[in-house]
Amino acid sequence: xxxxxxxxxxxxxxxxxxxxxxxxxKKIRIGVEGAxxxxxxxxxxxxxxxFDIDIAWALCKQMGAECDLVSQDWDGMIPAxxxxxxxxxxxxxxITPERKEKVAFTRKYYNTPAKFARRKGSGIEITAAGxxxxxxxxxxxxxxxxxxxAEFGDTVKIKRYATQDEAYLDAAAGRIDVLLADxxxxxxxxxxxxxxxxxxxxxxxxxDPKYFGEGAGIAIRKNNADLVEQFNAAIDAIRAxxxxxxxxxxxFDFDVYGEPTS
Amino acid sequence: xxxxxxxxxxPLYLQGLWLTVQLVVMALFFGMLLAIPIxxxxxxxxxxxxxxxWAYIYFFRGTPLLVQLFMIYHGLGQFEVVQKSFLWPFLxxxxxxxxxxxxxxxxxxxxEILRGAIEQTAFGExxxxxxxxxxxxxxxxxxxxxxxxxxxxxxxxxxxxxxxxGSAIASVxxxxxxLGAGRIVNSRHFAPYESYLTAGLFYLGLTFxxxxxxxxxxxxxxxxxxPRET
Lengths: 262, 230
Fold this sequence. Notes:
The complex is a heterodimer. In chain A, 38% of the residues lie in helices and 26% in strands. Chain A is an alpha/beta fold. Chain A folds into 2 domains: 25-111 and 214-251, D-Maltodextrin-Binding Protein, domain 2 (3-Layer(aba) Sandwich); 114-212, 3-Layer(aba) Sandwich (D-Maltodextrin-Binding Protein, domain 2). In chain A, the strands form 3 sheets. In chain A, strands 5-1-6-13-7 form a 5-stranded mixed β-sheet. Chain A has a 5-stranded mixed β-sheet with strand order 10-9-11-8-12. Chain A has a 3-stranded antiparallel β-sheet with strand order 2-3-4. In chain A, β9, α5 (143-152) and β10 (157-161) form a beta-alpha-beta unit. The longest helix of chain A has 20 residues, at 2-21. Chain A is elongated. Chain B has helices at residues 3-8, 10-42, 47-62, 65-75, 80-84, 88-91, 94-119, 123-131, 136-166, 178-189, 192-221. Chain B is flat, with a radius of gyration of 21 Å. The A-B interface holds A 75-76, 78-79, 82, 98-99, 102, 140-141, 145, 159-162, 169-170, 173-175 and B 74, 77-78, 83, 88, 92-94, 172, 174, 176, 183-184, 186-188, 190, 192.
């Protein structure tokens, strides 16, 4: 009996140790957001849905890994990754130089431009003069926040929200003149809904890599280069075998992947 | 620890500090204005008079400050009537919503502190006032309220500190107060430890000032209770 226990103990140690060193990740915890439709949102029954969520499950299936989705507030997304609360972030996170200082990124898995939306009939133009004194809503700590702060920070009143949904609510309540957000998120999450019926797109799409990065990628701790490779391979595989297109078509009527990466 | 993050963002923190101080001072001022009449009505023996103040105090002490702020900021904004009314220019601004929530909240706690102090008035003092032929109003003004304020002072000092700390929730409705500044810094640098610790240190500093201020105040108002200095 004692020998059996000892054997089991050694075996357990070996397995545990083996897993930590393994080249291939079989168990992955993924951080997602949940307040960013149509990319991620929480259904009335409490489960997660959206493009990010479907992509996450598809990638896990492709890698043959057992995944656990953890929802986390946007503000704490990267700190929680670094604190090992999960191993990867699939939350429409743009690949930017500032974030790259803290975490590693996979290749992009989609890239859509940012756009402004204004209250219908307000006639606001997206210029320094047109935006002067206007209240602009962005989600805090996003590429949109960085862009508006750097380009128009002196002239506009910036309201920063913890989630994109809160910005939509305040816009509907009449507290906001202009919103800046990802064009697809804003179209399906706001403009095409009852909440956003008084708002419309204005101005061009913005995708300057200086602010908006190279698109949305999967963030991973820097010391897990093997996991980055594993995700990159999986992204290529679901792009190639049509899984990506199937998920894409469920939410959008064009390919959100954008320009193919070289 | 990366101190350069803190130094680089010091102006943001100072801006946040100023907003926090503004909100707390104004909330306490308006809260006190409200609390005195509420406390007086609350001490009445007539259910018709003390009913409403009782319900007010019960509601604002019985629900979290965050819920009250959400009800005012998000809740009122939902109704078209409110959006069309003359109050909207105020309720539209997160600043006034937060101030309103804080003032109403601290008024309830302060009223309850004052009520306790008023009810503890030594009956001999009341009898003496009556024997001198004071009217009720004069008795409240000269005898009951001054001694009630004295007795309420230590408990009120606590309430001021709670209000300061409660004011941190202003940051959830887009206001950049001390905690709001901390949240922005955290989101820019992904350094939660440095950003929140700095905000925390500012709160500590403010609390120190409040504690010290109340100590001085108590020295003055409770001078008759101190042993005579030799």
